[in-house]
Structure formats: structure tokens, C-alpha cells
Specification:
CATH architecture: Alpha-Beta Barrel
Subunit structure: Homodecamer; pentamer of dimers.
InterPro entries: Pantoate_hydroxy_MeTrfase, Pyrv/PenolPyrv_kinase-like_dom, Pyrv_kinase-like_dom_sf
Shape: globular
Helix content: 40-55%
CATH superfamily: Phosphoenolpyruvate-binding domains
GO cellular component, one term: cytoplasm
Strand content: 5-15%
Bound molecules: 3-methyl-2-oxobutanoic acid
Order of helices and strands: HEHEHHEHEHEHHEHEEHH
Number of domains: 1
Largest sheet: 8 strands, parallel, barrel
Pfam families: Pantoate_transf
Number of helices: 11
Subcellular location: Cytoplasm
Amino acid sequence: MDKITINTLFAKKANEKIVMLTAYDALFARLFDDIVDMILVGDSLNMSFGGNDETISLSLEAMIYHACAVKKAVKHAYLVVDMPFGSCVSVDLALKNAIKVYQKTGCDAIKIEGGAEFAPIITALNNAGISVMSHIGLKPQYSRQMGGFKVQGINNAQALLDDAKILEDAGAKMLLVEGTIAQVATQITQNSNLPVIGIGSGANTDGQVLVWSDMLGFFENFKPKFVKQFLNGADLVRQSVNEYAKQVRSGEFPSSQHEYKFQG
Ligand code: KIV
């Protein structure tokens, strides 16, 4: 299977939907790699894996650790790594941290949450040879400042359209639009030359991304309206662990077939 590149993604924009999924480790990344087009090592791992209420406390080192694990299993999909909160707040800091992530993880691109105010940073990274996916709309890294996880595009549709255009002009290679009214996300996609991936932003973006632990039913703390659960993972795991516990307690496991024996 050919490796997906930025050129593949631009070609798909006009012709077919782009499928993106998060992964946080090699085990699951290996399962997803030849099925999806793009894998995102998202900072959502701080919530589903880290057990935190927000993404804000994730460190750069933790992100690099997870991204390196994912990279070992990814041979086909285009690999994007999230830049954690605070890691790209000036041109100098963004260059230092993004170069570190790019070199250590071997990813294809990084993702930065932020609108037009990040344009100079996107230009500097692009000039340094690093492809950037800009993340606009609902930006979880700003949830504390914004008073929660709020749907976007109700009162700020024009600002979002402006963000998308300014970031494209600044050198962004892809856009991710999160938690945005579907009509606004549609307009952003139609006005943009970039591949636009949506999450909770309707059906008309160029592609979709979901958090793997949401779509496979492992994350039970809350379920956003936009998530479709394709597996009841948590229930399946619980059933199997209950069965394991029952068999250990009853002596049914391990049986003789699971023992090492002297040969001959
Ligand atoms: O961190 C994440 O998983 C994200 C989602 C939008 C997919 O950024």
C-alpha cells in the first residue's frame, strides 16, 4: 500500500472523502493504519488516556512519547501530531518545539489550535519545512478561557471564514474544523483550497476525524452529540475481564493446555 502524502490529500479533496482517526499507541495505530488515510496523535489523549478533564495540562514530552509509539506502527497513513497547549505561543517557541516534535517523532505534519493570530507562526513553520494543519472552530485548548466547550459559528461565522482564509494564505497545508455549525463548516470548505477535515461540523467537509476511544465506545465519561459509536468497546472488555476473573476464581483457567511441561 502506498504511503499517503500531502499530495494524496490534495488530490482526494476534489474526489473522495478523507478518513482520519486518532491513535495514541502502536497497538491501535497498527489496527487503523491501512484502513484510514490520516492518523492524528491528538492531545485528547490527555482526557481519555490521562483521565484529565481538559487537554491543557499535557506536556510536550508526553506528546512526543505517544507520537513515537504511533509512528512505529504507521506505514501508510499520513501522520499528524498535535502541538500541546502553550507550545507554540511565539514564533521562536513554535520553531523550537515543532522542530523537536518533527525530528523526534518522524510525523508528516503538526497540528496547531488557533486562528488568524497564529498566521506569522504558520508562515515561519512552513518556511522551516514543516507542514501545519490549523485547527479552528471549537478549540479545546481554549476551553477554560471560553467558559467551556462551546459550539462555534453561531455569532462568529465571518471570523471563522476569515481565520480559514488567513491561515491558508499564511501557509497552512490542511484545516481541521471542530464543533462548528454545519453551514459555516460547509462554507469554509467551499472557500478553501486546502483539505478540510471536520469533527462535529456536519457532512460537507472534505473528510472526518473522530477520537478512536469515542467511536469504539471505550470513553464513558461523556458522549458528545456528534459522536457515532461503532462498537460497544467498554461492555465487550468488561464481559471478557469478568469471564477471566470467573475462570481464575473457579480454577477453570489456566488449564493443562496453558502449562509448560517437560518434553519426552
Ligand atoms: O486532540 C484531538 O483528538 C483532536 C480532535 C479534534 C480529533 O484534536
